[in-house]
Design goal:
The complex is a heterodimer of chains A (227) and B (83).
Chain A (H helix, E strand, L loop, with lengths): L1 E6 L6 H11 L3 E6 L10 E4 L19 H11 L4 E4 L1 H8 L6 E3 L7 E9 L15 E8 L3 E3 L2 H9 L3 E5 L10 E5 L5 E4 L17 H15 L4
Chain B lengths: L1 E9 L6 H12 L12 E7 L5 H13 L5 E9 L4
Antiparallel strand pairs in B: 1-2, 1-3
């Protein structure tokens, strides 16, 4: 399986994402610069965290106007799995690939610590290796992770089972304790916590690895003969 | 030359933690009559004359300058100073 990790100016979790796919999961991965990237032909696309364009204007807003987002939209339409973490999630929101927006954390603090997440939906290509309702330990590291959407959008998210992860104890004020959501089709996941920073015991948790394993299992099931 | 002044504010009902903190500080300074503070953004755009300017500004606001999920915008178009 071949992953693309899209690198923007100001991305800083791109190496972690690469490490998760390449070393922890043991699959192929490439770091691709946003201006040169051709996203055709990858089995999955990873949008890493960081501070693309210094978070100018709004987190993810400037990145969402780049040409690569047009490519992302094409790939999303044909069903390629896309995972955006932290700033990657913010870019997916700003580009309209996922519904809602991010506000500053309720306590106005940049928070960087482990949180317990609840797997609310294990019927996705990103969570099939988890048990429904499983509690996992994954770090957060953000200042604008306070997810917001209006009531009609929230109702739709619930109805379509698009809420994939929630916080067991809400750290940032997110609507409905939301930590991660998918698009309607289920092939685009955005989440604030960092699964790529929890892929082996040395990092204090390996709970994030199952997310990448789920993507791999799904890919094998669909694209590898005899798997 | 036109000078476009764009004001971007959080929609009503959207939590503004920054505004709340500023309000708390003003109250601490003794301005107890401050009941709410909402923090927004102000942008100045210098634009070459164009008949289509209002339409363009609308587009720029909804595409990039403001996020319609959480923010409202308003703007004025004034005669700019020619240097």
């Amino acid at each position: 399986m071949k992953f693309a990790v899209v690198v923007f100016p100001g991305s800083n979790c791109d190496r972690d994402m690469y490490y998760a796919a390449k070393d922890a999961l043991g699959e192929e991965a490439e770091l691709v610069w946003y201006q040169e990237a051709k996203l055709d032909g990858y089995d999955a696309i990873l949008i890493p965290g960081g501070f693309s364009y210094g978070d100018y204007l709004r987190c993810g807003a400037i990145a969402s106007t780049s040409d690569i987002v047009t490519q992302l939209k094409t790939q999303a339409e044909i069903g390629v799995p896309i995972l955006g973490v932290c700033n990657g999630f913010q870019i997916l929101l700003e580009s309209g690939l996922l519904p809602g927006a991010m506000l500053r954390n309720k306590n106005l603090k940049f928070m960087c610590h482990f949180e317990n997440l609840v797997v609310e939906n294990n019927q996705t290509i990103f969570t099939s290796e988890y048990k429904q309702g499983e509690v996992i330990s994954v770090p957060i590291a953000h200042n604008e992770g306070n997810y917001y959407c209006d009531e009609a959008t929230l109702a739709r998210l619930k109805e379509n089972n698009q809420i994939v992860f929630t916080y067991q104890t809400n750290p940032n004020g997110s609507v409905a304790d939301i930590a991660g959501i998918t698009n309607e089709k289920g092939n685009v996941l955005g989440m604030m916590p960092h699964p790529e920073r929890a892929v082996e015991a040395l990092l204090n948790s390996a709970d994030g690895l199952k997310l990448f394993q789920s993507m791999l299992a799904n890919w094998r099931e669909n694209y590898v003969a005899g798997a | 030359m036109k000078l476009v002044k764009v004001h971007i504010t959080l929609k009503e009902g959207v939590l503004d933690p920054q505004g709340k903190a500023v309000q708390g500080s003003l109250n601490t300074l003794g301005y107890e009559n401050i009941e709410e503070v909402r923090v927004g953004k102000y942008l100045e755009l210098t634009v070459a004359d164009d008949a289509n300017i209002e339409h363009q500004i609308e587009e720029m606001c909804s595409k990039l300058l403001a996020n319609p999920v959480i923010e409202n915008y308003k703007y004025t178009v004034e005669e700019g100073v020619t240097q």
